[in-house]
Design goal:
single chain; alpha/beta; Rossmann fold; OB fold (Dihydrolipoamide Acetyltransferase, E2P); 2 domains; 15 strands; elongated
């Protein structure tokens, strides 16, 4: 049984959609409905439904602004509106489907099928990810697990040279010349790397301690085996020397 949340500032439209959904009462159940988008956001911050039916034309906050403000986006969003000019924008905002008011029963049936397929696919992927992470954690020699581009990458410590910050992104540089871009800040990457092998030598860099070839004390740089030259910040220099 799918659990649905409805958001529409017009009570009549909300009641109409709820009535249409009663035709599929064996497949979908309304757990909450809102005419105030701010109340809906508050609810969705602590509750995760199987799907969200969301109106676009709302006076205090339109549907696209609503989507951007969602902290949790782990459920499919269905856009409902009386205006067909929003179709492309709805897709760009990662909506799973687009329903024109008044909502047709056959269209709604197709939408429910899409929601089921979406949730089934995500559930399977989530279970597989958890299994892989669990398997990796019980290995005698733990590998570093990176989640990027919709896949999990498992690396040995000695495969990584260093990591570099780029604002809200980080880049992992590998010994084979490849690099991996992560949508994580360097602090988050630092938490993923074992502290006995890696050291945050600068606000913008984490290095693999086993890959250091030289330390230029006067200039404040380390040279890695790959000949990359990485700066050592003044704040980190004392701790770094203690490690060495």
């Amino acid at each position: 049984m799918l659990e649905a949340v409805l958001v529409d500032d017009e009570k009549n439209a909300l009641q109409s959609l709820a009535w249409e959904l009663t035709n599929f009462s064996d497949e979908i159940h309304i757990v909450a409905s809102f005419t105030d988008p701010f109340e809906a956001l508050s609810y969705l911050n602590t509750n995760t439904p199987d799907c969200l039916f969301l109106d676009i034309e709302m006076p205090t906050m339109d549907g696209f602004q609503f989507i951007q403000k969602l902290n949790n986006k782990d459920f499919p969003v269905v856009i409902t509106t009386a205006y067909n000019q929003y179709a492309i924008k709805a897709l760009k905002n990662e909506a799973i489907d687009y329903l024109l008011k008044p909502i047709d029963s056959d269209d709604l049936s197709d939408t429910i099928l899409k929601i089921k397929k979406f949730n089934s696919k995500n559930y399977t992927a989530e279970r597989l990810e958890k299994l892989l992470l669990n398997f990796n954690s019980i290995e005698k020699k733990k590998k570093i697990t990176l989640n990027t581009d919709g896949k999990l990458v498992f690396l040995e410590n000695n495969q990584i040279l260093y990591a570099e910050s780029d604002g809200n992104y980080s880049t992992i540089y590998l010994t084979d010349g490849h690099k991996i871009v992560l949508t994580k800040k360097l602090k988050e990457v630092n938490d993923l790397l074992p502290s006995d092998s890696f050291f945050r030598i600068h606000n913008s860099y984490i290095i693999n301690l086993s890959k250091i070839k030289e330390f230029l004390k006067t200039d404040g740089y380390v040279i890695l085996e790959s000949n990359h030259k990485i700066p050592v910040s003044r704040q980190k220099k004392s701790d770094f020397l203690d490690l060495l």
